[in-house]
Amino acid sequence: MKLAGWLLAGWLLAWPLAGQGRFDRLDRELRDAARELRITDLRAAVIESGRVVWHTGGAITAVAPEEPVIAARISATLLDRPAPAPPGATIRQVLENRADGTPGEEVLENRAFFEALHTAGPVPNAVAFAQREHGTLGWFVQDFARQRVVWSYSPSLLMIKLPDRKLTLVVSANSNALTEAARLQDGNIARSTIALAFLGESARDELIDRALIDLYFGDRDAAARLAHQALDKFPELESTPDVTLLYLFAQLRLPETEASATAVIKAHPSLPTAWFYYGQYLENSKRYREAAACFEKITMHEPPWHNLTVDAARKQLTYLKTN
């Protein structure tokens, strides 16, 4: 089913629904998640084998994220070539946002990447689209609870596919909290309470996700309590290579940030967000020389990183050098 530019309005309401009862739990948990995220208008639909089998909240009028347009228009031979960055990744892995765990924007903005596409022969509209909408070039791909999950998002729209079960969840909201609270730009769908309602509950993930929501809305004390509760129950969290966990621990200035940073950077050394989150923690801990080293890692990397953290790191370095 081609989703590029697909509008769900009207079609959802017109389609006869079957088996509503099987989605009662999903309905309840989505409503609970919406309340926590302070979303007043959340709309969701489940598609099974190309048919809408359940929806709630009215028609979804948002435009769905694009399919991986470059991957659909490039030969398999090119897709399996080495990507310009990160080291060891293929172009296919980059487009699926799974190259060494790097969420991909700094790779997809890399000039060398687009030069490689230009030299590959005709790629209709793909490069122009990439330069305009690089964030939706491909789907994120990860495993969760022994199932392959393929997902994509825009600020107020989330799509999650379970290919083996031929199920897709589409969720839209009147608030960017849908995706921003979970920091989906870091590339982990398990950080979303909306996603957990569809994928299946995890006590460990639920505690962390609720802490992220509290932090997003400025309640640092509540976020810290939940983070400590999660660490008490699941001590392995501090050494889990999860960049969003690193962000949470660093923002709360928890001592577990050290172990988290070590695990993330060891697993994903080409991840500028990891260096930035750790640098922020070090700066807040008044370890200015170490913080500067993290920010310099971002700004001086060769080949240059093209990530939103680059300008932020330059500003932090300027601040550290003038104060």
Describe this structure in words.
The chain is α+β, with helices and mostly antiparallel strands and 323 residues long. The chain has a domain at 69-136. 46% of the residues lie in helices and 12% in strands. It contains 17 helices and 6 strands. Strand 4 and strand 5 form a beta hairpin. Helix 16 (288-299) packs antiparallel against helix 17.
Strand order of the largest sheet: 2-1-6-5-4-3
Structural class: alpha+beta
What would the average pLDDT be, to the nearest integer?
79
Put simply, the count of helices is 17
Oligomer class: single chain
Question: How much beta, percentage-wise?
Answer: 5-15%
Q: Flag low-confidence runs.
A: 1-19, 66-72, 103-110, 120-137
- Biggest sheet, in brief? 6 strands, antiparallel
Query: N- to C-terminal separation?
Result: 56 Å
The sequence of SSEs as H and E is: HHEEHHHHHHEEEEHHHHHHHHH
Count all strands and give the number: 6
Q: Categorize the overall geometry.
A: globular
The radius of gyration computed from the alpha-carbon positions, rounded to a whole number of angstroms, is 20 Å
The percent of residues in helical segments reads 40-55%
